[in-house]
Amino acid sequence: MKLRISILLLLLAFAHASTAQSVISLAVNLSSSPKDSLNDASITLYKLPDTLLIGSQLYKPGGNRFTLNTYTKYLLRVSSVNFLPVERMIATTDKPLSLSIPVKRKTTDLQDVTVVSRKPVIKQEDDKSVVDATALSNSSTNAYEVLEKTPGTIVDQDGNVYLSSLTPATVYINGREMKLSSEDLASLLKSLPASSVSKIEILRNPSAKFDAASSGGIINIVLKKGVKIGSNGSANIAYFQGVYSTQTAGFNINKSSGRLNSYLSYQFTRRNNYEELSSTRFIRTDSSLLSQNAYTSYPGLGNYIGGGFDLAFTKKFNINYDLRINQNNGKSFALNDISIHKLPAQTTTGMNSSDIDNRNNALYVGNELSSKYKIDTLGSEWTVELEYNYYRNKNNQDYANYYYLPANPTVSGNGSTSGRKHILVFQTDLVLKLPRIVNIETGFKLTNSNSRNSAAYTIDPGTGVPQTDVYQTNTFRYRETITAAYLQVSRTFWGFTLKPGLRLETTDINGRQLVPRDTNLAINRTDLFPYVYLQHKLFKLFGVQLIGNAIYRRSIRRPYYEILNPYPKYVDQYVFDVGNPRLRPQFTTNYELNVTFDGFPVLAGGINETKDIFSNVNLPGRRHTDRIPYLRQPGKKQGILCPHPGRRSPRWKVFLLHRRPVQSHYLQRHLPEPALEL
Predict the structure, then answer these.
(1) I want to staple 588 with a disulfide (CB 3.0 to 4.6 A). Which of 23, 344, 610, 635 is the partner?
(2) H or E element at residue 2
(3) What would the 3-class secondary structure string for 434-502 be?
(4) Which helix (H) or strand (E) holds 303?
(5) pTM of whole model > 0.70?
């Protein structure tokens, strides 16, 4: 109740300030050499900060007069063919103003002038950085490579994207969150042609308008749409050569007719990526080194179709529809060579290799229907968006493990995995721009996600009789519903811009593992996420304004369905990881200070305070016990709590959650003893 009263008082204060407004007069006189005539001089007045045109007058010998609002900032510009341009910043009070502006004649007449301007690669716009993707697209084959080359981003081998924290960033496409795993998202971006990316927006600390589940920041990939002038089209073809070659070809058609603008694009990609990986692991229990060399090729075919239209019913109201279809048929052939050496004599005690053949088929369909209504000429608007996304992934795998030293029978197997995901999003936002540079933003969002994943594997331990691999056979259902509402207000005064906001989110999660055994998980909680943004003009350096920004934000990172599913996923024949349904959400508080110079970020620093960190640690499986390792740092509320309350772990020690004993012959025979301390 106190929160509602505070918000109401805040809105009333802003409203009262905006209505208490009067006008004053401004007198402008120009002065120059007695020999010069100012008859062609033009005096133009703009309202700040959005440079809204107020009026323009030709100079009058007795001076010019304008009517201005009190306590408002303006820009006055004097221009003439024979004189140098002059600009003046005006900040009104409640008293009339009078200005006398000297003008100087141009001393040099240029016959031919060529102005060359280069679009900046990166620029700062309020609380986000905008990267122009044109230059990055020219040297890339797909959107994933564009993202890898984006300044300020780090992409790891698992497909996670990082900005300025240890938490992966949330990836958006056209302002919509892609609720996919890192592997599925990487596959989707690799199927998008690089030429389809227009720009990339980086928000290290998003406002209350965005989902709170973005403690690592937000990366918004903005795709190109149709050109709204006339009718035109283009075609492209490209060839890239690495270890293997990649070819791509496509076309784009745009049509504008009256109030209707539409576009259609298609891109075909034939690719074959290649990857080499070398790693060394130390096994403490028997003082051995495990060396691994992996060679993987990724041939595949991809098809991308994009289309949509924009229909303007009136000058104030329009609707927009966008459709994106990605179809990807991919393969991977992996060869792993593993050797084990006994220390310190470097005696070879084990040699084996494995062949893995994967065949993957993925389909992504995205539908977005939105409408926008412009309320007034100040920029107030109301938007409504409805989105439905469908993702399907199927994978078939054949593998064989060969043991040379000591000699053992070949272990082989095959299996298939499949996953389906349906995502429905409804969102409405209202932006009110009031006089005296006051903005109010509010909105509501509902996101519903339903997933079903299954895996079925068989294994032949060398007997020639395949049998069901119970440790890789799994069926998991997951449903997530997030309801959110937010309110934020911005106000500019005395060279400061203040934008406080508050977001409320309700989380409802239900998960159920059907195979190998019936287990359930349920999460239901409500959280508040405050946000404060403060901007101030510091000073001018070489005639360019330096702007300082301060940001405070609280966010959440929910464990996604893959790490909640208690299903072992094998990295190789020695290492596996498994989900934990007991994981709790992780909360992060961000503090950031940054400085921009002419819209370009030059200095930034901040602190991220995170509680209840969940992090997976891959360890070799134990011979008689299957365990799930996690890190915990006592005293800082980091890590995952033990199912048995009160149990504590040493600082930076591996924290093991016990499960049932391992009964699989495959796990007992071929997984060595682990090193339990890191």
Answers:
(1) 610
(2) helix 2-19
(3) ECCCEEEEEEEEEEEEEEEEEEEEEEECCCCCCEECCCCCEEEEEEEEEEEEEEEEEEEECCEEEEEEE
(4) strand 288-312
(5) no
Q: Which residues of 589-614 are buried (b: 16+ CB within 10 A; e: fewer)?
A: ebebebebbeeebeebebebebebbb
CA distances from 80 to 60, 77, 83, 103, 550 (A): 14, 10, 5, 10, 41
CA 93 – CA 416 distance, rounded (Å): 73
Which letter does DSSP use for residue 105 in this model? Answer: B
Instruction: Return the residue matching tokens 């969002």.
Output: 445
Contact predicate 443/433, CB 8 Å = no
Q: For tokens 């008689």, name the residue.
A: 624
Give the Cα separation of 70 and 337 in Å (integer): 77
User: At residue 407, does pLDDT exceed 70?
Assistant: yes
Q: What is the 3-state secondary structure (H, E, C) of 521-583?
A: EEEEEEEEEEEEEEEEEEEEECCEEEEEEEEEEEEEECCCHHHHCCCCEECCCCEEECCCCCC
Across 6-10, 18-22, 671-675, the highest mean pLDDT is recorded for 18-22
By residue count, the chain amounts to 678
Higher-confidence residue: 507 or 108? Answer: 507
Distance (Å, whole) CA 100 – CA 592: 43
What is the rounded distance in angstroms from the CA atom of residue 593 to the CA atom of residue 548? 7
What are the chain's domains?
22-102 (2.60.40.10), 231-670 (2.40.170)
Closest CA to 253 of 240, 236, 268, 270: 236
Give the span between the Cα atoms of 331 and 101, in whole angstroms: 72
Q: pLDDT grade, residue 517 (50/70/90)?
A: confident
Statement: residue 148 has pLDDT above 90: no
- Residue-wise pLDDT for 186-225, tens only, equals 777 877 778 778 888 888 888 888 888 877 788 888 887 6
The answer for residues whose C-beta is within 8 angstroms of residue 107's C-beta and 6 or more apart is none
